[in-house]
Amino acid sequence: MSGLDGNRDPGQLPLPDLQSLQLLVGVAETGSLGRAATRLLISQPSASARMRTLERRLGLQLLDRSTAGSRLTPAGAVVTDWARTVLEGATALVEGAAALRSRQDSRLRVAASLTIAEELMPGWLVTLRESAPDAHVGLTVTNSWGVVEALRRGGCDLGFIEGPRVPDDLHRSAVGRDRLAVVVAPGHPWTRRRSALTGRELADTPLLLREAGSGTRETLERALRAYDGVSVPVLELGSTAPLRSAAARGLAPAVLSALAVREDVASGRLVEIEVAPAVRLQRVLHAVWPKGHELPEPALHLLRVAKHQ
Fold first, then answer.
1. Would you tell me how many other CB atoms lie within 10 Å of the CB of residue 103?
2. Mean pLDDT of the chain
3. Taking the CA atoms of the chain, what radius of gyration do you get in angstroms?
4. How many angstroms separate the CA atoms of 252 and 239, rounded?
5. Which residues pair with 208 in a beta bridge?
């Protein structure tokens, strides 16, 4: 057993397991196979069997055994030095993987529809930062349809949507309520109305609207379905700000989230028009995630913040 088998390709040798290498290092440090076994919490017979297996795999005699104990052979001393290097590398691998896992576990991928992202998410993230300072959030802003698609293809962990319909393949949890507001420029004829706007009037009027696929558009289309749906829009965009500006300049009435236009209405830049109660413009805001998937801890934190803030 003084050397490698000459007929054996060293590259094909079975690799020793880490515990056997720990045992060898333990013998070098304690001067005894028994004490090394005690350190590793294994029995003496098990330690002896492991050491014989290690010697057989390497084709080397690593220990001189006697009634006085075990000591390293010259070959055993060299192998012990190599074993320490391997064990240090294995420790670095395990610690590095743990650090990567910690970073991965604290990284949260969120997709949110525009109104939620602009009006609610900033406050939620500030609160999340206070309760979970290690959480790192990557936010994708899209419309409600885009959030659903991102969840289905695994592009995010948690989504927030404004649409009235949540697909059956997603879990849902209500996180708030919103309504759509019909807003016009201060000089628009509707500002002089004495009665609420009817569903028929709203359906027959060309409007400034969010794009198809947005929760805002889907809510309006559902509310006006009984009146043959919305008229051909004057303008439809995937962003709220230019629609608010166009409405304030008198281009046409706009139907947008009340959250998104509240400051414009408060300042007088836009005027909200009363709509008949029969036109259901209210909606529930939902957190959504795929069925069969457990939410990671940062997502649970954010969901709790969204539900209670």
1. 11
2. 88
3. 34
4. 16
5. 235, 254
